[in-house]
Design goal:
about 425 residues, three-stranded antiparallel beta sheet
Length: about 425
């Protein structure tokens, strides 16, 4: 009886079927990779440029593809160029784009994770006090063959130059003849910036964090979230350590203090609508500050203490300084939208310290020691310095001894009464 050939034929059929199946899979894989390579080399850069341009409502220039892998690519020099309406700009020598190829091939959805490598950023403040003119937009429903979602934007080893507006600063400090003494604020450079912005809720929300080192010293960390709606709502939290006061002070909105030297530490939360500051909360410690308070004719030195930020006011706590030649202890607040409300205690000081600080003309010899209680009140652009000064021990004026002398005064519009 002859043996049946069926098992042999069946085995051959299975091998042929398997070979065909494997070939089909390889064909599909090769085709997918070929399509992916074609897409990356010819379509992805324009799509990334379009996506970023739509997000920030400004033209973005994306370079050509330099290298490619199944999970990412490298793009050459790219830029956010300046325009006639907006001088802010960015140049990026290299861009890394990561994505999930399986998700792209299976669902035609491209989730982008973009890293800007060694970017150089330049931002100018306008005369209204606004820093960024970018109008971030939420993600519209994608109508093309590929759905694009921007998941993350990272920056690696960035440098940033901030340019405070000189007219804005001069207007804030322009009280009496002080405007002529206030030099334009210098640009602030921050290096070694590293951070991440994460988009969610169909790009209607972005959370971000960035850390960098100002050229003038110290470290700054910024965390925040923005709701990309109209109006744009933002909450940011700023932490700074060992920051130089001179370049940093012009970056703090509505604080009429010109710093020449000293250090600042801060832990500050700010809430904004578009670019308008709605409120702030937090503290800033300062030490060894030398500078000028708008409206006062003499400079301050050796200032140390704590600023407490609330709503749109700044409270002074445990603050000491030297005004002219007079040592001071300060308390009270500055409402950055309206007025001063400061109390100043002057510990005992001799007649020469008072005469030189207040620019008094005394036609007769004086030997005295006095202390005072002063107040700074009035509008930010027209402060009033008033107070009481009294001797603390027997004084001699033109060879005549006085057991007690008390004087009240007020300085308004540079006039002493």
């Amino acid at each position: 009886m002859n043996k049946s050939p069926k098992p042999k034929i069946l085995g051959q059929s299975l091998r042929v079927s398997a070979a065909i199946g494997v070939s089909l899979i390889l064909l599909i894989a090769v085709g997918g990779i070929a399509y992916l390579r074609y897409f990356v080399n010819n379509k992805l850069s324009p799509l990334v440029a379009k996506e970023l341009s739509q997000l920030i409502n400004r033209p973005v220039e994306i370079g050509s593809v330099k290298s490619f892998s199944l999970t990412g690519l490298r793009i050459g020099a790219s830029a956010l160029p300046a325009s006639q309406e907006d001088p802010d700009l960015a140049t990026v020598p290299e861009v890394s784009v990561a994505y999930n190829p399986l998700l792209l091939l299976s669902t035609r959805t491209l989730n982008l994770d973009i890293t800007l490598i060694n970017p150089e950023l330049y931002v100018e403040q306008d005369q209204a006090g606004n820093w960024l003119q970018l109008k971030l937009k939420t993600k519209p429903d994608s109508s093309g063959p590929i759905k694009i979602h921007l998941d993350n934007i990272r920056i690696r080893n960035a440098s940033l130059v901030l340019v405070p507006n000189p007219q804005k600063r001069a207007k804030l400090m322009a009280v009496g003849n002080l405007a002529a003494k206030t030099p334009p604020p210098a640009p602030v450079a921050i290096r070694k910036l590293n951070g991440k912005a994460e988009f969610s809720n169909q790009q209607k929300q972005v959370n971000y964090e960035v850390t960098g080192q100002p050229d003038s010293g110290g470290v700054v960390n910024i965390q925040g979230e923005s709701l990309l709606q109209s109006p744009l709502r933002t909450k940011i939290f700023i932490r700074g350590t060992d920051l130089a006061a001179k370049p940093i002070m012009p970056l703090i909105p509505n604080v009429p203090i010109e710093a020449y030297s000293g250090q600042i530490d801060c832990n500050l939360g700010i809430e904004l609508e578009e670019t308008e500051v709605l409120s702030w909360q937090g503290t800033a410690g300062f030490k060894n500050i030398t500078g000028q308070l708008a409206g006062l004719q003499k400079g301050i030195s050796g200032a140390s203490g704590i600023l407490k930020f609330r709503e749109l006011a700044v409270d002074l706590d445990n603050t000491v300084a030297i005004y002219g030649q007079l040592p001071l202890r300060l308390a009270g607040s500055i409402d950055t939208e309206s007025e001063y409300n400061l109390s100043i205690e002057i510990p005992p000081a001799n007649q020469e310290q008072f005469i030189k600080t207040l620019d008094l003309e005394i036609p007769v010899p004086v030997m005295a020691e006095a202390a005072g209680d002063l107040r700074v009140t009035g509008a930010l652009n027209n402060p009033i310095l008033s107070g009481v000064v009294a001797t603390t021990k027997t004084s001699r004026i033109d060879l005549v001894d006085f057991s007690k002398i008390r004087a009240e005064f007020k300085i308004e519009n540079d006039i002493l009464t």
